[in-house]
Structure formats: structure tokens, C-alpha cells
Amino acid sequence: MKLLKTLGYIEVKGLSNAIVAADKMLKTADVELKSVENTRGSGWVTVTVVGDVAAVGVSIATAKEAMGEDYVSSTVLANPAEGIDKLGKTDLLLNKANKEVKEEKNKDTEKAEVKQDKEEKTTEAKVNKVTKNKKNKK
């Protein structure tokens, strides 16, 4: 069984506060940002970081202090149970980035399909013209 790094969660009011909290945590200690998630209630957002126990603890404490009255809750899970790290599936930043990538791919696909349709129509018109010319020669 593979041991996970320590997980740290802090819940704050609003996305802008979550970004500030994440910035404070990343600058304070050697932690890695795992996700920024909408909690689907009261405009709260959860920021998740991973790292060693001490680093995660310090980063959470620093963010908590920085948030003041916009702080909601936090926890540090040392050696979390298997699967705990996969519970968050609504990462706000990744969802937005993925949505933008999908939209860009859709635009590219639509452009390619339009181009292919034009090429097929052009080819079909040329074939029809050649066929018509052959019939006229006979």
C-alpha cells in the first residue's frame, strides 16, 4: 500500500479569498496545490494542498490567519486513508481550463469539418464536370 503525503484543507468565503489563501500557503511552506473546489454552499471554496505534515500544518495556519473573518474551516490529514485524496472532483480552476480547452477543440473541429466539406464539394464538382464533359464528347 502506497502512503499518501499529508493533505491539508482550508475552506474560505469566495474564490478570490481561496486564491489568496493558496498563494499564502504556497509561499509559506513546501506544499503543492492539489485543488480549488467549490463547496456548493454559501460561496465557500476549499483549497487543498499536499506535502509533509509540518509543511502542510504551517501553510494551513498561515492561510487561516490571513483570512480573518473569511476563514470557514480547515483540517490536516496526516497519512490519509486510501481514496481520500480522490474525493474532490470539482476543481474550479481545472474545470475552467478544461472547458476552455474543449471549446477551443470544438472550434478547431468545426473549422476542419467546414474545410473538409468545402473540399468534398469542390472535388464532387470537378468529378461532375469531368463526367459531363465525357458524356458530351460521346
TrEMBL record:
UniProt keyword Ligase, yes or no: no
Keywords assigned: Bacterial microcompartment
Domain BMC: 6-89
Gene Ontology CC: one annotated term: bacterial microcompartment
Subcellular location: Bacterial microcompartment
Pfam family, one: BMC
Compositionally skewed regions (Basic residues) per UniProt: 129-138
Ranges of biased composition (kind: Basic and acidic residues): 100-127
Residue numbers spanned by region Disordered: 100-138
Domain of life: Bacteria
Record's keyword annotation contains Amino-acid biosynthesis: no
PANTHER family the UniProt entry points to: BACTERIAL MICROCOMPARTMENT SHELL PROTEIN PDUJ, PROPANEDIOL UTILIZATION PROTEIN PDUA
Family statement: Belongs to the bacterial microcompartments protein family.
Protein's recorded name: BMC domain-containing protein
Organism of derivation: Pediococcus pentosaceus
